């Protein structure tokens, strides 16, 4: 089986494992990048929670990983200079 056939067979699996929703907010580069970061954050949190629930990692390890991901997301927001109060108008 060549690579293109393998990719075609994996498309449904990839859509399931890596869902991505369209962005509906104000179209600016910073917002699009942060939206992608936010979706990746949510996906990784989901994986961590599932691993912890199934006993593959400890609660402490899950908490530590989630805390680190949260700090990365906050850093991303700050680096992209996105105002956290912009939706309160």
Explain this structure.
With 89 residues, the protein is mainly α. It is built from 3 helices and no strands. It has helices at 3-17, 29-53, 59-79. Helix 2 (29-53) runs antiparallel to helix 3 (59-79). The longest helix has 25 residues, at 29-53. It is flat and about 40 Å long. The N and C termini lie far apart (55 Å). 1% of the residues are buried.
Structural class: mainly alpha
Task: Please state the average pLDDT score.
Answer: 84
Helicity, as a percent range: 55-70%
Instruction: Supply the number of helical segments.
Output: 3
End-to-end C-alpha gap: 55 Å
**How would a textbook summarize the main sheet?**
none
**Low-pLDDT stretches:** none
H and E string: HHH
SSE map:
Layout: H1 3-17, H2 29-53, H3 59-79
Helix pairs in contact: 2-3
Short structural description:
This protein is an all-alpha fold and 89 residues long. It is 69% helix and 0% strand.
Question: Which key features would you list for this structure?
Answer:
3 helices; mainly alpha; 89 residues
């Amino acid at each position: 089986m060549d690579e293109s056939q393998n990719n075609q067979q994996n498309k449904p699996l990839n859509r399931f494992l890596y869902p991505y929703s369209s962005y509906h907010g104000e179209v600016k580069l910073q917002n699009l990048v942060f939206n992608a970061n936010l979706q990746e954050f949510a996906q990784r949190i989901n994986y961590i929670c599932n691993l912890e629930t199934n006993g593959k990692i400890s609660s402490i390890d899950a908490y530590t990983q989630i805390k680190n991901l949260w700090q990365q997301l906050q850093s991303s927001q700050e680096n992209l200079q996105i105002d956290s109060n912009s939706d309160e108008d």
